[in-house]
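Students often ask why inverse folding is considered easier than folding. One informal answer: many sequences map to the same fold, so there is more than one right answer. In these notes we will look at a single instance of the problem. The structure comes first.
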């Protein structure tokens, strides 16, 4: 989906509709997680099984770490310096945090606050800022491509949480 969006126009291949879709998906992720987990016992949110070794809280912790990592890249790309950035794995980032040890409520509150801040920053960015980029892993990336990665990743994990709690 994202790769197809980048091909074609030479300017990143995205437009106002794509930006609006990204912003909508960014806003929806914490809401989807909240709705899926509303009324679920805290113990259930930390439950791991042989079929699913990650609890709902583990998944949210992973989503937060991935957002931390990708948001740092987005911030650096937003400067317009076009520098080469060293890739950092969201899974490695998770190991550096205490997110898995936090309660689900603490993780969700922090994720919601972080997301409000990101959406506010991106909403105030002019369209041309979305095409600012850097080289990451020898690949040209833009603010738009990294926001796209973030929304795709979170959508997948929202679906995973919803399925686990059905």
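Output (designed amino acids):
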């Amino acid at each position: 989906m994202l790769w197809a969006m980048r091909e074609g126009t030479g300017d990143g291949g995205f437009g106002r509709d794509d930006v609006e879709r990204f912003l909508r998906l960014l806003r929806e992720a914490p809401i989807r997680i909240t709705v899926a987990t509303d009324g679920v016992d805290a113990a259930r949110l930390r439950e791991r099984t042989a079929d699913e070794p990650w609890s709902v809280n583990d998944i949210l912790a992973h989503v937060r770490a991935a957002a931390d990592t990708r948001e740092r890249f987005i911030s650096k790309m937003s400067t317009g310096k076009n520098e080469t950035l060293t890739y950092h794995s969201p899974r490695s980032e998770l190991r550096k945090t205490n997110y898995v040890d936090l309660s689900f409520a603490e993780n969700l509150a922090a994720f919601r606050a972080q997301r409000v801040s990101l959406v506010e920053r991106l909403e105030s960015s002019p369209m041309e800022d979305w095409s600012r980029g850097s080289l990451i892993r020898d690949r040209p990336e833009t603010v738009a491509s990294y926001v796209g990665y973030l929304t795709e990743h979170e959508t997948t994990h929202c679906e995973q949480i919803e399925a686990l709690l059905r």
